[in-house]
Design goal:
The structure holds two protein chains of two kinds.
Chain A: H1 4-36, H2 43-61, H3 69-96, H4 104-126, E1 131-132, E2 140-144, E3 150-154, H5 155-177, H6 179-189, H7 191-196, H8 201-227, E4 229-230, H9 234-249, H10 254-274, H11 280-294
Antiparallel strand pairs in A: 1-4, 2-3
Helix pairs in contact in A: 1-5, 1-6, 1-8, 1-9, 1-10, 2-3, 2-4, 2-8, 2-9, 3-8, 5-6, 5-8, 6-8, 9-10, 9-11, 10-11
Chain B: H1 2-24, E1 25-30, E2 33-38, H2 40-55, H3 57-70, H4 82-95, H5 102-127, H6 135-153, H7 157-179, H8 184-204, H9 206-209, E3 215-216, H10 240-243, H11 250-277, H12 279-289, H13 291-296, H14 301-327, E4 329-330, H15 337-350, H16 355-371, H17 376-393
Antiparallel strand pairs in B: 1-2, 3-4
Classes of the chains: A mainly alpha, B mainly alpha.
Chain lengths: 308, 410
């Protein structure tokens, strides 16, 4: 029996957990793009802030407090979601709403400015150096697949996958059945018409930003617990990759973002394992370039018609 | 009024959420442990500021509203005496360094590099309206071209300079070719991807580029073959100061670098100005204003965009070669996304398409951080903030170009 199959399984779980994080962040990109057609460049920074809020909460509780681990993680997640929700709301209000209706590039430049601002905002407050996140989730699931190589999946990675799946289900139901979800779907189809029919579009847009930020924060907290360190500049590259995931799945489509995130995570992990770990970022960027060139609508997206 | 107080109160509460985890509860590393130092005063101050600011917003906004109309715009056609002013300015720029101190000349050289890069990007972003977030990639290509030509072939700066421009232009052409049919914001992200790919390749291609350490010991430009150094690197050759019988001074080298940069910047300015008035320049601007109209008038958008992209990349390549010569070393650290954002900010702040504006913005964005060295921590913070505020109050830039246009009389 060769070691190939267990190794592939191992990489699959690693890739799946990474992809879950990308998917959580990509949803924010895709929803904002679906509704107001702008790339929220500062979204990666929201993820980073989520991770920091998680760490602050963890430090406030203390690792020796004796509280059960799931409770601590829940506290971290709730704190991070609350704070980043406010960040998402404020960023939209301050940097994007005044620019509604101006050319795309103006909004994009404002978003880049916001992204730089938020990075340095956190660097100023919490220091620009790496921070260690204490490990609170120990242990792993081990199983053998009939060879010497054991597959090891740490509980933290299982947690990422489970939490993400739960959130995805909740989000899908919410978008499908709730009043706000229906309103946001209406806005992404035709903002003007939705407005005429009495939907408060400004509220829907704010809500979209808050929802995206909240999901990104979950990703931030989960990855901080798994990787164990963070700095104010982690959001940039992850943000670009999550955007790649959103484009891969078809920007504007929520299932597309989930699919794209998982695919990108798997591609990146397998590329790092079997091609070269130094070139994994290059492969992710190349993937972005190739999709935009050959299938700009992504896997599940609808083609966009340019109207005069 | 009650409503206003309520709004201000809500804003203050939200501020508490925003400020607390970043400035209120600061994490302090102590050995292996992470401790927390609460600074509630920061949170309270921020809340108070936001509360008062929100209450007084209608009054605070007034001066900005007034300012909106009164900032100057550049006339499209040259004013009388424009030429003389140009000549006086150029002569002043040439003579000035001989009477100035070392530090200022050094900063001025840096300014000129950014003028060059800003003018190059201005062709792409300002004239053709293509948002290029990976401009620094071409800058890096230019710098590494000279560094590698020197490292492997012993080429001098002046020999390598045209190649740096050509290779960067080639990169612009090859990378631009497939992506230029993409829509504005997709193009921005793809170019950002290219910029990052170039940087990551420079880090990882150890055998060629020296990896993260880069290449060092790159010589400065020569004066018609005479080296500007204390001693000649090749036995038997004369250096600049020996040839003219001067004593060696570091000041000479710095002034010479400045003059070289000035020459390159002036060439860039001249070429860009000419290009703008040529048919291709008109086509760029037409394309920026309305792509569909252009296509229906028989212009080939891909070819026009590609020419802007390639020419912009070429100037970045020249800038890069000079940068490599000035620094004496190149490494991938100098070519991060922030650098792209800085060059973009120069173009945006100056007023997209306005060359005088770009030069002014390059001076502002390089000199101000140098003056405010003790606030270095806040530099990038302010930089991001200024980008957002500019887009809100004056998306057309500080000194926008007034378009030649005709208005119907009523």
């Amino acid at each position: 029996m060769s070691d190939l199959l267990p190794q592939l399984t191992q990489q699959f779980f690693n890739g799946l957990s990474l992809g879950a994080i990308y998917a959580l962040i990509a949803i924010g990109y895709t929803m904002v793009y679906g509704i107001i057609g702008m790339i929220n460049f500062a979204h990666g920074e929201i993820y980073m802030i989520g991770a920091y809020v998680g760490l602050v909460t963890l430090t406030a509780i203390g690792t020796q407090s004796g509280a059960p681990v799931p409770l601590i993680v829940a506290a971290m997640l709730i704190a991070a979601m609350a704070v980043t929700g406010v960040y998402g709301f404020a960023v939209e209000r301050v940097a994007y709403r005044p620019l509604r209706g101006s050319p795309r590039l103006v909004a994009l430049i404002s978003a880049i400015g916001m992204s730089i601002f938020l990075q340095n905002w956190v660097a100023l407050g919490q220091g620009a150096r790496d921070m260690a996140v204490p490990n609170i989730i120990f242990g792993a699931v081990n199983f053998t697949m009939g060879s010497k190589f054991d597959v090891t999946v740490p509980y933290s990675r299982i947690m990422i996958i489970v939490v993400t799946i739960v959130l995805m289900i909740v989000l899908s139901l919410f978008i499908k059945y709730s009043r706000m979800g229906r309103a946001s779907r209406a806005c992404s189809q035709d903002m003007h018409m939705a407005n005429l029919l009495g939907i408060d579009t400004n509220r829907v847009i704010s809500f979209t930003f808050v929802l995206g930020a909240v999901l990104a924060a979950v990703g931030g907290v989960l990855i901080a617990l798994t990787i164990g360190k963070l700095n104010p500049f982690i959001g940039f590259i992850v943000g670009i990759k999550a955007f790649t995931a959103a484009v891969l799945g078809g920007i504007g489509s929520i299932p597309g973002a989930m699919l794209g995130g998982v695919l990108l995570g798997l591609v990146e992990t397998f590329a790092a394992a079997y091609i070269s770990s130094q070139y994994k970022d290059i492969i992710a960027f190349l993937l972005l370039v190739l999709i935009l060139l050959f299938r700009p609508t992504g896997l599940l997206g609808k083609p966009e018609v340019e109207k005069v | 009024m009650a409503n206003q107080i309520k709004n201000a109160f809500i804003a203050a509460i939200l501020t508490a959420f925003i400020v607390t985890p970043v400035f209120g509860l600061q994490l302090v590393r102590q050995g292996a442990r992470t401790l927390m130092a609460p600074h509630w005063s920061n949170v309270l101050i921020a809340m108070a500021v936001v509360f008062v600011g929100q209450l007084l917003r209608p009054w605070l906004a007034l001066p900005f509203k007034r300012m909106k109309g009164t900032l100057p715009t550049l006339p499209a056609a040259p004013v009388q005496g424009h030429k003389w002013m140009m000549i006086v300015l150029i002569v002043a720029a040439i003579v000035w360094p001989f009477f100035s101190d070392r530090g200022s000349v050094d900063i001025a050289t840096l300014v000129l590099i950014y003028v060059m890069l800003g003018l190059g990007l201005n062709i792409v972003v300002g004239f053709a309206g293509l948002l290029d977030l990976g401009f620094v990639g071409f800058y890096a290509v230019g710098a590494y071209t000279y560094a590698l030509l020197y490292h492997w072939g012993g080429w001098s700066f002046w020999e390598a300079l045209p190649f740096s421009g050509a290779i960067a232009a080639l990169f612009g052409f090859v990378l631009g070719f497939p992506v230029l049919r993409l829509r504005g914001d997709y193009l921005a992200i793809v170019t950002l991807g290219f910029g990052e790919i170039i940087r990551l390749l420079l880090i990882n291609l150890n055998w060629l580029t020296g990896g993260p350490d880069g290449i060092s010991g790159i010589p400065k430009p020569t004066v018609f073959g005479l080296e500007m150094a204390r001693t000649a690197s090749v036995e038997g050759q004369k250096t600049f100061h020996e040839f003219f019988g001067l004593t060696f001074q570091n000041q000479h080298v710095i002034v010479y670098l400045y003059l070289t940069a000035l020459l390159l910047a002036l060439i860039t300015l001249f070429v860009a100005t000419r290009l703008k008035r040529m048919p291709v320049g008109r086509a760029w601007e037409a394309l920026r204003e309305d792509e569909i109209a252009c296509r229906s008038l028989g212009l080939n958008p891909t070819r026009i965009k590609l020419s802007a992209f390639t020419l912009g990349a070429m100037f970045a390549g020249f800038g890069g070669a000079f940068f490599a010569a000035r620094q004496g070393l190149v490494n991938p650290e100098s070519f991060t996304f922030i650098e792209s954002a800085l060059i973009l900010a120069i173009v945006v702040l100056g007023g997209m398409g306005s060359q005088v504006g770009v030069i002014l913005a390059a001076i502002l964005l390089t000199v101000l951080p140098e003056l405010a060295r003790e606030f270095a921590e806040y530099r990038m913070l302010m930089f991001g903030l200024v980008m957002v505020l500019m887009m809100m109050w004056r998306p057309q830039g500080l000194l926008p170009m007034k378009r030649p246009h005709v208005e119907l009389e009523k």
